[in-house]
């Protein structure tokens, strides 16, 4: 087809594949397309949308002609949309020079995107918009065509080995031009320069027709990553969004608002400002969304770990580093860290307290362990000892300190509120404890905390504002202070840029968190005890079932009420599993926080595991008052979870016990009269 015709059908084609933004057209429903159930459609779709397939060839063909396609701002993720509508351009270079007023004089703003951006915007946003598509329960997200495509695009545009494949070009001589900078159509506040795109350095000032292939490769990689991050990790409140912007930007925004309010007597700016502050996006990522983000995190670790070691002489390095190598160096701190932190924090606070949280947990643990995705293979040792975390990761841990410490505290708060007798919940506690107990990791986190809490002797108080800029490395201090201060500066800069200057840091190895860990250890002991009592109870039930089944009632009715748990249906294997997970988790927590044997024994005593009959004879936790015993919150927890109970027994004449619900009242009364008559005789 001629380019003019292709240009006309391209938006329709993209919409018919990925579905419309309003969710009315479902498209090919790639998220439910599985190789097992629809092998033909699955393979056809993957071939068609492959990075070297017909669809991408069309994209590159249109790219050569510098066509533009409108993407409505109203369908962008909430905070970005609100910001652009307020005429404040987000810091992400993806939106620069692209916002346009509608030609027809309508109300909506549009982004003018080149074909590659337009295609990728639709591809990424279809993960979020198509929520109402009919999903069958046996569909595994990680086998869907969508998941495989995300993986393919990441491997193609962010390669761990070699460079990005050049786009297939229709004319053998020329490369596809990279987008040329265009003047903005809306008067936007300009943003601080510390977040400049690599794109600007490498290609912004080159003639677009003979774009250097290296720059072309970095342009596609950077665009792809920015689109994925912007579309999938946008769940934050607007205040958080504004806090993320640099101080320079905030000042610009303020000036802009003041100038608007003076022109319009205050009302429009005031109303939009209030709207901006009242705005908070509804937060409902699906499990599939989280799995795709985990795939992105794992790939980015592998991508940045594939960086070649730096040459010894810095001069040589500055001349030889290719744009892609440069990109690997900054990819996580500049593009992902901040947004992923907020996304995770929001998930930790809002995700339901059930086993589906496992997806979020594994994504977090993947981010915390970049060494798992490093190219060097661990030496094959015969003994299955956990590998010690190498010192070379200390910088990563320090520059991601909050990811380790604040989110660990967030996890503790969740764990204290879940039922640890359930094997799935026990497994989550075990996973986290196992990761944090890797040799040398706790020590490195502690060192990071010490660097953060170091008194600022070198830096004058008035220079605090420097911390707001994540790219200031602190190297200007090195002439008059040791490397420790440089590291300390980086940690502080990370914490303050994510949480603001007034942040009150809660130490992971401080007393407050230690007390939470002790509380969790106590709950683990109680859960083990409950699992054992449930196990014993089900064993008793099995033994006496046959005898009591003749009388059509079960032993639980004979013993009084028994507070069961979902394990009653699960069976002995799961109880054994729960016990193993909790046992190991407790052991790991003791390693991480250096809990002593004495503390544990004391806790065991508290939990009543030292008492005979597995604590069955122990009363729930309560305090004596003049009105008798009053349950404490712990006591209530013990009763609800079947850990302990009051032994309620009838203490009067056994012949005059109240008639039970499972007894025949007329028969009981008749037989009682008969026995009384016999006794009198």
From TrEMBL:
The keyword rRNA processing does not apply. Its main location: membrane. It comes from the Eukaryota. GO terms for biological process: ceramide biosynthetic process; glycerophospholipid catabolic process; sphingomyelin catabolic process. The keyword Kinase does not apply. It is found in: Membrane. Keywords: Membrane, Transmembrane, Transmembrane helix. It is a single-pass membrane protein. GO terms for cellular component: membrane. InterPro entries: Sphingomy_SMPD4 (IPR024129). GO terms for molecular function: sphingomyelin phosphodiesterase D activity. It holds the Pfam family mit_SMPDase. This is NSMA3 phosphodiesterase. It comes from Quiscalus mexicanus. The lineage of its organism: Eukaryota, Metazoa, Chordata, Craniata, Vertebrata. The gene is Smpd4.
